[in-house]
């Protein structure tokens, strides 16, 4: 089983970026965490980060036929991107929406998620652990769907 983890804009700035909200660990720390979690969970991983909406649409389209599930933190595009929503709907790959912080307890403009309706689950406010929870959820979800 291959999962694709997509991180959107400014997630590459973790560590430097608003550490009071996102913590002091860096994007490289997140990649190490994801690789370790995948090994433990027995899944293969593709890792992708971009600051560009179009590049995120492109990788979702690329995933069709190659990837079993998507763990997606669209970052700020969560609250703006109908293009990412449409790409997820186009490929119909099970996806879990993940946020390090909990956008629902932050500014009102973060309360709306356009991608949510194309995702099988949303996990927010659990930091790095949320990505692991998403991987484990997708592993079970995809295994059950194949039965
Ligand atoms: C975020 C929450 C978004 O509102 C914000 O724009 C981000 C990160 C999170 O992981 O908590 O960049 O997706």
UniProtKB/TrEMBL annotation:
Q: Where does substrate bind?
A: 73, 79, 86, 100-101, 110
For biological process, the GO terms are:
amino acid biosynthetic process; aromatic amino acid family biosynthetic process; chorismate biosynthetic process; quinate catabolic process
Q: Does the keyword Ligase apply?
A: no
Biological role: Catalyzes a trans-dehydration via an enolate intermediate.
Superkingdom, taxonomy of origin: Bacteria
* Record's catalysed reaction(s): 3-dehydroquinate = 3-dehydroshikimate + H2O
The cross-references to Pfam families, in alphabetical order and at most eight, read: DHquinase_II (PF01220)
Any idea what this protein is called?
A: 3-dehydroquinate dehydratase
């Amino acid at each position: 089983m291959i999962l694709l983890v997509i991180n959107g804009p400014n997630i590459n700035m973790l560590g430097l970026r608003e550490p009071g909200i996102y913590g002091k660990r860096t994007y490289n720390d997140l990649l190490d965490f994801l690789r370790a979690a995948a090994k433990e969970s027995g899944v293969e991983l593709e890792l992708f980060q971009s600051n560009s909406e179009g590049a995120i649409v492109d990788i979702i389209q690329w995933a069709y036929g190659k990837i079993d599930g998507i763990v997606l933190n669209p970052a700020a595009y969560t609250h703006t991107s109908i293009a990412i929503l449409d790409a997820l709907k186009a490929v119909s790959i099970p996806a879990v929406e993940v946020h390090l912080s909990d956008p629902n307890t932050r500014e009102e403009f973060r309360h709306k998620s356009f991608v949510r309706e194309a995702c099988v689950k949303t996990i927010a406010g659990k930091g790095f652990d949320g990505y692991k929870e998403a991987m484990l959820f997708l592993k079970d979800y995809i295994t059950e769907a194949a039965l």
